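Weekly structure sync - notes
Attendees: PM, LS, DV (DV joined late)
Agenda: review two folding runs queued last week.

Item 1: First target. Sequence and structure tokens pasted below for the record.
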Amino acid sequence: MVNPVSRLGDYLLSAVANTGTVVLLLAEALLWLFRPPLRVMNFVNAFYFVGVGSLFIVMLTGAFTGAVMALQSHHAFSLFNAQGLVGGTVALSLTRELGPVLTALMVTGRVGSAMATELGTMRVTEQIDALEALAINPVQYLVTPRVVASTVMMPLLCAFFVTIGMLGGWLVFSVLLHGDPGMYWQKALDWTEPVDVLNGLIKATVFGGIMGILSCHQGFTASGGARGVGQATTRAVVYSSVIILVGDYFLTVMLFSGQQ
């Protein structure tokens, strides 16, 4: 019978070791960002894949998230005749929490899984070893563009999410629920401050970096053939999603604790 304490110790040691390899991979990727050669097309392709490729699903999710928020908050506020507060509620919810978190989760499901699968396949088929044989650093060639693209494009996608979410909430509030559209936008402007939008974009930037480096790390260290690639993809999505949700709490404490 395996000692539970021993299993817990092995798990903790493995977690610490994996964290160390992720940090080292991130440091190497950032160092190679400032060293030649600068392969511009690698960055262009990564930016297109992460940003443009995710735009539709992010906007679709944002539209229905804003619509649901308007519908539910209208029902709650109608209990004490305060339907005019719907716009401010939707705006604060989207800019502070729902925008960055849901954008990160949607992009993780689409982009993070693809990154882990692609790099994992390259690892098990020895294509990464072939790059090293050709004197091409695989971290600079494969990891750096993906991490940079994830970090830069995530706040832009979050901005699209919030914008479309506000429009979706406005349509539901003004068309379906026959609310005052002017009141919706006025309350959104009154309640939402620039710091709310900025902090939401900061969250999205951090989440993008987390998703990018974790997904690349899982693919970069995959082994065991097709089964290992599948497991690496699963771990990339699960680990990224969990750390994004956990990190959201600590970022909220740091960024919004001083606001009333």
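Item 2: Second target, run right after the first with the same settings.
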Amino acid sequence: MNNALENIKTFFGERGVAYYRTCFERLKTVKRVNRVFARISSAKDKEQLADYLAKIRYALIFMGLGFNIEFEPLGSKGPDLGITRDNQQVVVEVTRFRKIYDGPPDLNLDDENLTLVAYGNPKRDIRKAFEKILAKFPQVNNQKGIIAIWNDDEDLDESETLTAVFDISRDSAKGVLAIPYGLLFVLYGSKWEGEKQLYGFSFYGLVEPFVTWKTELEAKTVFGHIQSALSKRDFSD
């Protein structure tokens, strides 16, 4: 854990270390978390480091909702997380949209000639989300699963991911591709807080308790979920 924090300090400075020390302390008894700490320790750049920290973030989000969690339940080649609650065991595969585009420029509200600048490329970004989701299907296989995306590409938002899920569902109905039998929904999150910060996009109608899971995930901000995790008793095995 200490080596992981030292590497975070290298890329993000002391402020980043203080925050992640608290998070790591909360997770240090979770099964196989040391594998994630080791990867964080060996990250060679900010982007690789942020990939691993996305797994930490989602682990805390689920912990905040009272799930028992473990890392790499099926080994290093399998999904990133195993979560258990309501007598249901589900795997979670975490992925991240790396920062490529900066998104719209900051607005000067004092500018009398202020105009909104178009940004993004919907066709390109929908395809990016489509391919990212499809690439994670083998990790879920036919287990009950969730694909959790963290978005750091500011040119892309939740609407492209929603459209990608719709397109995958349409192609599945046509027999063009097969959706893993147990895949429940795509969980999308980013630093931007709009109507919601987390969105669950399902491929078909959900049943309980998964409807409740999705509703609970969407009901709080990422910060709210993580604060819940940091204040709860130990839910790890």
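Discussion on item 2: Residues 66-231 form one domain.
Action: LS to circulate a short write-up before next sync.
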